[in-house]
């Protein structure tokens, strides 16, 4: 009886190992065929995707925004961003003009000192006029740099929107936890056993 049980365990063990080898060969063969198919169909899929009406060309969006700010946002159908773009440019233009006018005003007062014409109720020293002149000049230059940066920012925004145009950002995410049975491989002379476990899957 003991010899028969031992022989039975040896047969089960060999059968289990043979099944694992065959399964391993099958998985390798399937992966090879799948990779070959994917390499063959990549170009066709890429071209078909570009012909899809939902595809947005990032390069075209960048060029449109560079030619006319806000046009790339219109191309991406993000119309609500256009007022923000032009409000930013109008605000920066206002501060450039404000600092430019004051810079010229204090520059002329610096040249005309002490017979300057500024609307102040108290007299200003030459040092105060010079510092005010330099401050308005610095703020004007910073606003100009900020305008250039904002111009580049709206180009980047249009390009990123084109890349993410068909990206699913919905809140339809779910985590599912359910019981499962895992089969552990045979060890030594013991046949495989089933183990109860929990399986978690995230859907998005």
Order of helices and strands: HHHHHEE
Spans of at least 5 consecutive residues whose pLDDT stays below 50 are 1-8, 30-45
Evaluate the radius of gyration.
36 Å
Number of domains: 2
- Termini separation (Å)? 56 Å
Content of β-strand = 5-15%
Tell me about the biggest sheet? 2 strands, antiparallel
Shape designation: elongated
Quickly give the structural class: mainly alpha
- Taking strands numbered 1, 2, ... along the chain, how are they ordered across the largest sheet? 1-2
- Report the helical percentage: 55-70%
Number of strands: 2
Tally of alpha and pi helices:
5
Average pLDDT, rounded to a whole number, is: 76
Characterization of the model:
- The structure is a single chain.
- With 204 residues, this protein is mainly α.
- The chain folds into two domains: 2-53 and 170-203, no CATH class; 58-163.
- It has five helices and two strands.
- A hairpin with an 8-residue loop joins strand 1 and strand 2 (193-203).
- The chain is elongated.
- It starts with a helix and ends with a strand.
Question: Helix and strand layout, with pairings?
Answer:
Layout: H1 2-51, H2 58-67, H3 71-75, H4 81-112, H5 126-163, E1 174-184, E2 193-203
Antiparallel strand pairs: 1-2
Helix pairs in contact: 2-5, 4-5
Briefly, what is this?
The protein is mostly helical. It is built from 5 helices and 2 strands.
Task: Name its key features.
204 residues, mainly alpha, 2 domains, two-stranded antiparallel sheet, 5 helices, disordered N terminus
């Amino acid at each position: 009886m003991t010899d028969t049980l031992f022989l039975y365990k040896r047969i089960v063990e060999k059968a289990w190992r043979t099944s694992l080898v065959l399964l391993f060969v099958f998985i390798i063969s399937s992966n090879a065929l799948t990779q070959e198919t994917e390499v063959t169909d990549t170009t066709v899929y890429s071209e078909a995707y570009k012909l899809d009406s939902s595809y947005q060309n990032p390069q075209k969006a960048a060029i449109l925004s560079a030619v006319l700010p806000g046009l790339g946002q219109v191309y991406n159908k993000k119309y609500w961003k256009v007022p923000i773009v032009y409000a930013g440019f109008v605000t920066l233009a206002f501060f450039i003009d404000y600092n430019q006018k004051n810079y010229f005003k204090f520059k002329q007062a610096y040249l005309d000192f002490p017979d300057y014409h500024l609307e102040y109720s108290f007299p200003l020293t030459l040092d105060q006029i010079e510092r005010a002149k330099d401050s308005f000049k610095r703020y004007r230059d910073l606003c100009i740099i900020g305008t250039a940066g904002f111009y580049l920012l709206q180009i980047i925004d249009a390009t990123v929107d084109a890349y993410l145009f068909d990206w699913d950002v919905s809140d339809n995410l779910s985590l599912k936890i359910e019981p499962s049975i895992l089969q552990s491989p045979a060890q030594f002379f013991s046949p495989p056993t089933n183990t109860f476990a929990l399986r978690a899957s995230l859907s998005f």
